[in-house]
Design goal:
The protein is of the alpha/beta class. The protein is built from 10 helices and 7 strands. A 7-stranded parallel sheet has the order 3-2-1-4-5-6-7, sandwiched between helices. It starts with 5 loop residues before the first helix and ends with a helix.
């Protein structure tokens, strides 16, 4: 076989992608990356208005994009999302599990119902959607790319002074879920990898950045900055494309070096 060029390896023309939590923030950034490389995009999140706006943004950039509203904490919504996506797109080549939630409270006062809410969305939802998409599309075709969004909060307990025990625990679970699934589904030519973002300004992190101090977080990062609207694009495309076809069960932090100095 003649080796492909780097442009060919990263090309996603003809591929389809489902991105959960894709209406804003990191999910929308990753959707842009896949769409700019040629993939057709299905966005999902809970709110139709946000999805309509995000889809218009992608379409304005020349990306083939559409959306389905679903709550990935609810099994019936997850199964509906998978079924409707496959009906409308034919198959799914790339699945990005990104929908997530956080809850801030000291561990001794953390509500059990909040713990369950975070776990249901951040890890249980990843499992159910991955299972459904794999069984209905990827396994039979012996091809697939699954990207799970974890966090540096899942690498070593508490990277900073956070009181988010359920979130941190769930993201640690995502990393081991990724490693286990990558090992088990390699025989189907399905790669499973995780991205561990550090601090990126977003609606979900707004309170955390305010409480911890944005300038302090920048100062503590070796690169002296937070993540921006481009910083996940390269790794997303690597894990989603044939450029990363020999990588599975792995995680990589995109955090300006924070996990280096905190021992994650």
């Amino acid at each position: 076989m003649t080796p492909r060029t780097i442009q060919q390896l990263f090309d996603l023309k003809g591929k389809t992608a489902l991105v959960t939590g894709g209406s804003r923030g990191l999910g929308l950034q990753m959707a842009h990356a896949l769409g700019e490389a040629g993939a057709k995009i299905m966005l999902s999140s809970r709110k139709a208005d946000d999805l309509e706006e995000a889809t218009k943004e992608l379409q304005a950039a020349g990306i083939d994009a559409r959306w389905i509203a679903a709550d990935c904490a609810k099994e019936e919504d997850i199964r509906r999302l998978a079924t409707e996506t496959l009906e409308r797109m034919g198959h799914v080549d790339i699945l990005i599990n990104n929908a997530g939630a956080a809850w801030g409270a000291p561990a001794e006062d953390h509500p059990v119902e909040a713990w369950d809410k975070v776990m249901n969305l951040n890890i249980r939802g990843y499992f159910i959607l991955s299972q459904h998409i794999a069984k209905a599309s990827m396994i039979a075709r012996k091809s697939g790319r699954i990207i799970n969004v974890a966090s540096i909060a899942g690498l070593g307990g508490n990277p900073v002074e956070m009181t988010t025990i359920a979130y941190n625990t769930s993201k640690g679970a995502v990393i081991n879920f990724t490693r286990t699934l990558g090992a088990e589904w390699g025989k189907y030519n399905i790669t499973v990898n995780a991205i561990c973002p550090g601090f990126f300004p977003s609606k979900m992190t707004m309170a955390t950045l305010k409480n911890l101090g944005e300038e302090k977080l920048k100062a503590n990062a070796p690169l002296k900055r937070l993540g921006d609207d481009e910083d996940l694009k390269g790794l997303t495309l690597l894990f989603a494309s044939d450029a990363g076809k020999h990588i599975t069960g792995q995680w990589l932090a995109v955090d300006g070096g924070v996990s280096v100095v905190t021992g994650g």
